[in-house]
Amino acid sequence: MTLLSVKNLRVNLRTDAGRLRAVRGVDISVERGQTLCLVGESGCGKSMAALAMLGLLPPSAEWSADEMKLDGVSLLNAGQSTLSNIRGNRVSMIFQEPMTALNPTFTIRDQLCGVYRRHKGGNRAQARERAIYLLERVGISNARNRLDQYPHELSGGLRQRVLIAMALMCEPELIICDEPTTALDVTTQAQILVLLAELREELGMGMIFITHDLGVVSRIGDHINVMYAGRVVESGTRDAVLGCASHPYTQGLLRSVPRPGVNGLQSRLGTIPGTVPSFYQADPLCPFRGRCERKLPICASQAPPVRSGAGHHSALCHNTEISSIAGNSA
Amino acid sequence: MSDIPLSGQTEAEHLRTLRKKARRRAVLAHRGLIFGLTVVLLVAFVAVFAPLLAPYDPFAQNLSLRLAPPFWHDTASPEHLLGTDQLGRDYLSRLIYGARISMGIGFGAILISGLIGCTLGLLAGYFGGKVDAVISTIITVRLSMPIILIALAVVAVAGASLKIVIAVIGLLLWDQFAVVTRTATLQVRSLEYIRSAQAIGCSLSHILIREILPNIRAPVIVVATVELAHAILLEAALSFLGLGVQAPLPSWGLMLSEAKTFMFFSPWIITLPGVCLFILTLAINLLGDGLRDVTARGK
Amino acid sequence: MTMSKPLLRAKGLVQSYRVKSGLLSGARELHALKGIDLTINRGEIVGLVGESGCGKSTLARILLGLEQPVSGTVEVDGVPVTQADKRARARRIQPVFQDPYGSLNPSMIIRDIIALPLKVHQICPADERMRRVARLADQVGLPARLLDAVPGELSGGQRQRVAIARALIIEPELLICDEPTSALDVSVQAQILNLLMDLRRDTGVAMLFISHDLAVVEYMTDRMFVMYLGQIVETGPTADVFSAPGHHYTMALQQSVFSPDDDAGLPTTRLKGNPPSPLDPPTGCAFHPRCEAATGTCREISPELVDLRKGGLCACHFPLGVDSGNTPLTRSDPHALRESG
Ligand SMILES: Nc1ncnc2c1ncn2[C@@H]1O[C@H](COP(=O)(O)OP(=O)(O)OP(=O)(O)O)[C@@H](O)[C@H]1O
Ligand SMILES: Nc1ncnc2c1ncn2[C@@H]1O[C@H](COP(=O)(O)OP(=O)(O)OP(=O)(O)O)[C@@H](O)[C@H]1O
Ligand code: SF4
Ligand SMILES: [Mg+2]
Ligand SMILES: [Mg+2]
Predict the structure, then answer these.
(1) Alpha carbon of B107 to those of A249, B35, B94, B240: distances in Å?
(2) Which residues of A touch B14 (CB under 8 A)?
(3) pLDDT in the model for residue B21
(4) B190 vs chain C: nearest CA distance in angstroms?
(5) Is B6 in contact with A277 (Cβ distance < 8 A)?
(6) Does the predicted model carry a pTM greater than 0.90?
(7) Would you identify the CATH topology of the domain B30-57+91-297?
(8) How far is the CA of C14 from the centre of ligand 2 (A)?
(9) Rg (chain C; Cα; Å)
(10) Structural domains of chain C, ranges and CATH numbers in brackets
(11) Domain coordinates in residue numbering, chain B
């Protein structure tokens, strides 16, 4: 059974300038033991989608969805108490900013054990044992001594490891990582990615991995949702989306990444001209049409259809053929 | 339905107008701000146009008509709306000219103290290190001085005149300006546009005045309003003690002081300047609070 | 290779800061730069890579004259520059900073921001100024209608174009770009990188291009420096450094760069541990606690930059691709080294 399934998720934010439509009908489905990557550029609604799934949206937000099921049980009408029972317990989240995601006034022990005892009960010693086990597991040396340190005494990489350990305290079924490595150095990023992948394997969790880095996606994703202006414009297995990108936006993104072994004197990078459309207008037409080089007359008058191909590969576009190979993972 | 999506700039312009509208709505919805602004503008107007608005010469005495009560008394004199004082001078005219003195001293003093405080705060925040240490010490010393006592001592020694009162108050009230400017400058100093200006080769005064000051104006304006009220009250207190504005100049504080002997038989004579003072300082403080609310919201 | 008169030459730059590490402990010395030598030739793009906190921005600030080094010199055209000729230096060396949101004065309009250097250096009359601004805005691809906007109304990429235009308007010979694209999305980054390449072709301006993204450095630069904890650990023509990295750290960096074409699965990172704190740097080679190949020599003796191949230097006792058996490559007397380090 699908671990998490969300259909037609919408999130609006009330702002001074009107209603900002941050997420405009997004479908998400994650299987156990699989990683779904949400990729897209800054502001496309990745974080808002993730926060909506946890019921952690800011107060100015309003959301709706046709379906939201965790392990087959609908969360749509769940109350706050059910949700907070799920948060940090069955579903946990690792936030983007390792510097601010930990409370500076509590020790590592307080924060790790707090989560555990809130959800699983158990006594102090049990919680401590688990904390030490996990800190060691995420690669923190002399974990016993680290327990009594405060977050500001740790470097960025260590803090991110502590956050991962904290997210794992209650053995979640699903872990949502919101750009967990963006603030880190490349070498630390590589270490953290390996760690997350190993842990997912070991614990059989489902994982949603949010990032804007297509390179990271290629290493960690099983399934990819490419987002643009609040919508998923292309979705499929990693090999399908990165190998046979079908949506003009995905193709443009892939062309704009500098590749190893290429120098600017030999070739220019591909660019996507123009800027993102307004977030304040409800617009059923293709959000990419103002920047698209394959635009057809129909793009300006009719909403784009979902074109699908083998292996769940689909793109939201008038002018595309899905010719991809079937993905090797379901 | 528009075909072409809004391009970057029209979108930005659109948002700008929407934000402006939202800001205007927030201002209009803020009752304290509106009340404060109205009263302050009104008093400022009265102060500026005092000669045109005052029905009588505020110094003209009419000893035959002393302590005439204001209009709500049965025995009120029809010529003097708010009655006359112990020397038979028209009270309304004196209050109007009093607004002039209060506002003049208030603005004069915060101009001086703002200049001193902002300069010190900018220098301390921008240079940090030893400069900051020295200026912080000066601020601490200033904060530990009792304002009223110092003012009394100085005025007693230097003599009381309008200029001296403005100077004394101005030289005493800069501390909040310095504290707030320093903190705000510290925050802005490390931003890259300051570094860019340095790398371009801009002069120190350009960096302080053109690059930093405009970007910290919001907290400075809030402090200025609070200090304006403070200065006006301080002037009233000094005048009340006989060390501020000297008779026959009509200052609200001085009027309170002169009225205190007559207040049992003619209570309005002390109530009227008191009420004026109260409403004006309340309005200025509300204005300051309102400005703070509105600017904080914009961020 | 004639190295007669490089545009910029930095020699033995050392910088340290006094920092308070705790509430009760006193101030300690943080060595941000430990003797950096660097040259940039005319019209060349030189890359500088390294992890967060290794001192890249510190070096940039010193080259720009925003900070005085504890020791070491900076020469422009063979002439040492001092604090005194700040304005002269500003005319020749200009920065492009990382944060497109912090690098423009929010209360000035774009036109004035771009024109500011002309005004400060009194280069031309006001009407000519505006003509130049318009021309440059066109050159960096900034729509003319944005010239009257304030920075708050521009997107990150547009702001970075403004920053580049401002830096270029007094026609400097060297641009110091401190991570100019690391706050931008990939598609915007591509536009800015293309722009910088075009500008270099059209104006011949030299650049020091600082980044932590190896793929970007490979794309942009002719020659590169790799920095680790305040020291240069490897340098050489970019193509050589990439095809045959000598330092183990360079190798680790290279392995941490992911490209969307890879389906190599998880990265094969061989790095151990975390980046060390600059407050107590490791002894010997600063990289030894994380290095696979580290031996006792590495723990004790700090390696010097030595010739690895033609035009390339590397500071490692056991550089990659050089079969040196168990004898360290460093030729100098270890005791002399310890004293100088
Ligand atoms: N608290 C908020 N109030 C109003 N608008 C918001 C708020 N938070 C985010 N937004 C807007 O909502 C949209 C989606 O934001 P979101 O944080 O989901 O983007 P994202 O894809 O996570 O971007 P990033 O990669 O920068 O994290 C953006 O346009 C953003 O400006
Ligand atoms: N003004 C300062 N006072 C104290 N320490 C400083 C100061 N400036 C820099 N440092 C320290 O010097 C070291 C080098 O900093 P620098 O900013 O040059 O690194 P960087 O390589 O640019 O890093 P990043 O990639 O994060 O920008 C860091 O450890 C930093 O904490
Ligand atoms: S629907 Fe049309 S405009 Fe949109 S991406 Fe496809 S071709 Fe381009
Ligand atoms: Mg986000
Ligand atoms: Mg830096």
Answers:
(1) 59, 20, 20, 20
(2) 17, 278, 280
(3) 83
(4) 9
(5) yes
(6) no
(7) MetI-like fold (1.10.3720)
(8) 13
(9) 21
(10) 8-18+27-221 (3.40.50.300), 227-314 (no CATH)
(11) 30-57+91-297
